Structure formats: structure tokens, C-alpha cells
# Entry
Amino acid sequence: VQLQASGGGLVQAGGSLRLSCAASGRIFSSHTVGWFRQGLGKEREFVASIRGSGYSPNYADSVKGRFTISRDNAENTVHLQMHSLKSEDTAVYYCAARANWKMPYDGWGQGTLVTVSS
# Structure
């Protein structure tokens, strides 16, 4: 499965953005998809994930209550709705997928840059 993130941009603090992750591959619906981000000079960190069924989304503490992950398997797409954005959310956002919890995330594509101005 190969994935491509899009939807980034420049937004003021307190604003919202919706990121999309488009996947190719007929087994996408069975994969868990995760969003990750990497700020300038920082290590990549986990943001959110969602199982193939769409149930049991998981979020990093830093984004709980502000970000919502969802998926549309018919469209092979996963979205990350981001509200109440903060300057510390500024980063390149990536999506990736894995077949099960034992497997590493794979299918990393080019990320999309989110810049939050204060």
C-alpha cells in the first residue's frame, strides 16, 4: 500500500485544517492507518491512528479533543480533521499504514506541511 498526504497549508492559531491521506492498493481497507508529524529539528511523532474497521481511533495526548481521524474505505482515504490549531502543531504531516500491530508502518509518501502562525 502506498499513501500520499495532502491538505496542508498556512493557518492562524485557533484555526482548522483537514488533511487527507489517499491510498493505492486493494487491501487498504484491512490496514490500520496512522498519521505522524515531524517538526523542524524534531523527531517524527505519532499523531493518530485508525483501524481498518474505522473503530478504536487512537490519539496522541497532545491532540486529543482537537483532532479527529476518520476513514472512507470506499474512497481509499483517511482524513485528519484538525481544530484549535496551535503553533506547536506546525510540522510536516505524514500518513502510513500497517497490516497489523506486529508490523511496522509502511507506505510512507511525501508529507504535507502544516504551518500554524501565532
Notes: Strands lie at 2-6, 9-12, 17-24, 32-38, 45-50, 58-59, 67-72, 77-82, 91-98, 112-117. The mean pLDDT is 93. The longest strand covers residues 17-24.
